[in-house]
Amino acid sequence: xxxxxxxxxxxxxxxxxxxxxxxxxxxxxxxxxxxxxxxxxxxxxxxxxxxxxxxxxxxxxxxxxxxxxxxxxxxxxxxxxxxxxxxxxxxxxxxxxxxxxxxxxxxxxxxxxxxxxxxxxxxxxxxxxxxxxxxxxxxxxxxxxxxxxxxxxxxxxxxxxxxxxxxxxxxxxxxxxxxxxxxxxxxxxxxxxxxxxxxxxxxxxxxxxxxxxxxxxxxxxxxxxxxxxxxxxxxxxxxxxxxxxxxxxxxxxxxxxxxxxxxxxxxxxxxxxxxxxxxxxxxxxxxxxxxxxxxxxxxxxxxxxxxxxxxxxxxx
Length: 316
Ligand code: GRG
Hints:
- The chain is mainly α.
- The chain has one domain (5-313): Farnesyl Diphosphate Synthase (Orthogonal Bundle).
- It is built from 15 helices and 2 strands.
- A two-stranded antiparallel sheet has the order 1-2.
- The longest helix has 28 residues, at 222-249.
- The radius of gyration is 19 Å and the shape is globular.
- The two termini are 25 Å apart.
- 42% of the residues are buried.
- Bound molecules: geranylgeranyl diphosphate.
- The site of geranylgeranyl diphosphate has 16 residues, from helix 4, helix 8 and helix 9.
């Protein structure tokens, strides 16, 4: 299929999944009056409960924005195994909850100190810092509650495998470690190997989970999971190079957040080290390499191949 029709097919699939993810998140997130009490038999309070403010902040941080790329990867992977859509959406919503928590915390004054995210005021600006910290905590823990629920899969071993995969990806040996690495490296210039490692931890590990989750739900073999991990590593790096390019070439309106931050901070990135042209070529090469890991799946993996191309062509 040519590039145009493939892009149309991908956009249609992404927009359909994004809507389904929105509906799932809407259902999973606690609502303003505390009606989704964790104790099912507890009476529903008439007036909003005092903690409703954190529910509101969690909903604000998650609903109505974002490309939903990570849940899309979960659903596309799950479709290769014929996994029921509802299960795939729960595993996808879980990673989106973790992603949204990371954005809320990353935007705090103690970290990146950003006021704009997804084209709107960041959560601590719209609410306050303490509420934003709590909202992030609430989103992170909800992700694991969602995976632990039998609605995600009736086999507890599969639920446990998903929980382990997401915990590893999000924790100190994954995204949290990558963020620490990033903060610790603020006063020195990293080389390419160090940047690759940092980005693999900070953003790549959630992509790893996203590419593996559908296959875990579908009972994939170790070899299949290994192939998806290789795909996700190349995809994650290509995504990051595209992000660095957008930081230089994008505009705040399209990207939905402040641009030019890396250059202002004198941060070494793929683009600052390689230059724009070589960085773009590297991203294209990574996309081809990513696709080459999917040969086993033949045309069943076409959407995953399309996503790899999309991540380097995106404008947001
Ligand atoms: C605070 C523990 C902790 C971790 C933060 C992921 C992260 C670590 C920070 C985000 C900073 C950032 C902008 C990184 C660049 C890559 C990235 C994750 C971009 C945002 O992801 P998209 O483009 O965003 O998928 P949407 O809004 O579409 O979901």
